[in-house]
């Protein structure tokens, strides 16, 4: 697969990954290399990276705990302090090896340490390969509120080695699939149609589907790097999906949902709202619901859960001028941004999901 240029980043795939990384390190005169991992990627992925690194530059490993619950400023402070203790300077390189938590947090740490050091993302989950590591968004959560603090600043390189997917459990693969499904719904009916019967897909198809998904996101973020217009379409399903994810994360009586699991619910709700407000065809709406529930199952959202979920909508980062802005669909591949939705329609959407 050919490498892809996205704004100031170059995205390399599989056999090109480590050759490109070694060349970049050789040409850039870095003083030290810091590799950020969690306990899972330390064990399963770091050995592969170190085996392929060809450099005499000092390498330091920094490990943080895995999980969205650790994607916080406090974790950043720990990493910043470690960088300082290990004499990192402005010519240091940070390599982030992990899923979306690692690439989001590691990118933010790199962009803010000494007002910015170079960084490289090596996503190891399907979700981070097709979404989190591409586009230059970095950041951390504020309490249980997702991605409230961050900057947009691209990594030097993104290295997508799909061999890392062999380390993932099934639920993590499904979580990443949700973002690929979203890419089809907002941009390309032909791409969407490839996912409507997963039984026809083999693992050999996965690399090509990942590649297409990265191109879809690359095209969007290249046209709108600061999320002033088109890039908002990538938030389809995320307005309610993020609120649901946040609510379940912060409620000890609820099972924590993976990002993709929550976004799937958000997309079903957004498809219903679209059918009510933007004339999205109801047969396609119903097909989306049936397909997604067949892949992900149904999550029980009780009536008493809905009000606190709606309260969380006010923190959505797409909001402006006091309005909660949704991304809806007029047709598959034809999204509409900045849609204001009455609460009664949102409540009807939850009833539709549960019906």
TrEMBL record:
InterPro entries: Dehydroquinate_synthase, DHQ_synth_AroB, DHQ_synth_fam, DHQS/DOIS_N, DHQS_C. Its cofactor is Zn(2+); Co(2+); NAD(+). Residues 62-174 form the 3-dehydroquinate synthase N-terminal domain. One of its GO terms (molecular function) is 3-dehydroquinate synthase activity. Its EC number is 4.2.3.4. Keywords: Cobalt, Lyase, Metal-binding, NAD, Nucleotide-binding, Zinc. One of its GO terms (biological process) is aromatic amino acid family biosynthetic process. The keyword Nuclease does not apply. Catalyzes the conversion of 3-deoxy-D-arabino-heptulosonate 7-phosphate (DAHP) to dehydroquinate (DHQ). This is 3-dehydroquinate synthase. It comes from Neotamlana laminarinivorans.
């Amino acid at each position: 697969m050919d490498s892809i240029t996205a704004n100031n980043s170059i995205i390399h795939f599989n056999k090109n990954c480590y050759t490109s990384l070694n060349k970049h390190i050789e040409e850039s005169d870095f003083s030290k290399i810091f590799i950020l991992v969690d306990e899972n990627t330390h064990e399963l992925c770091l050995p592969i990276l170190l085996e392929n690194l060809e450099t005499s530059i000092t390498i330091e490993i920094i490990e943080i705990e895995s999980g969205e619950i650790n994607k916080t400023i406090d974790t950043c402070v720990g990493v910043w302090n470690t960088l300082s203790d290990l004499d990192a300077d402005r010519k240091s390189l940070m390599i982030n090896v992990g899923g979306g938590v690692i690439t989001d947090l590691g990118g933010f740490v790199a962009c803010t340490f000494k007002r910015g050091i170079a960084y490289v993302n090596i996503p190891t989950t399907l979700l981070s390969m097709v979404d989190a590591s591409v586009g230059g968004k970095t950041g951390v959560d504020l309490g249980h509120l997702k991605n409230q603090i961050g900057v947009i600043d691209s990594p030097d390189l993104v290295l997508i080695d799909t061999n890392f997917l062999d380390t993932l459990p099934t639920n993590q693969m499904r979580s990443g699939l949700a973002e690929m499904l979203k890419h089809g719904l907002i941009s390309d009916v032909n791409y969407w149609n490839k996912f409507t019967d997963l039984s026809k897909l083999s693992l050999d198809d996965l690399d090509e589907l990942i590649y297409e998904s990265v191109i879809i996101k690359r095209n969007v973020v290249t046209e709108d790097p600061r999320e002033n217009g088109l890039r908002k379409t990538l938030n389809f399903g995320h307005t309610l999906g993020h609120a649901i994810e946040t609510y379940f994360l912060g409620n000890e009586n609820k099972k924590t949902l993976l990002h993709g699991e929550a976004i799937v619910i958000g997309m079903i709700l957004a498809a219903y709202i679209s059918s009510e407000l933007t004339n999205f065809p109801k047969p396609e709406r119903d097909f989306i619901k049936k397909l997604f529930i067949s892949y992900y199952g149904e999550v029980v959202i009780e009536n008493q859960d809905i009000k606190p979920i709606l309260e969380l909508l006010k923190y959505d980062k797409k909001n402006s001028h006091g309005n909660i802005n949704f991304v809806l669909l007029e047709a598959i591949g034809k999204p509409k941004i900045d849609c204001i939705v009455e609460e009664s329609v949102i409540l009807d959407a939850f009833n539709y999901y549960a019906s």
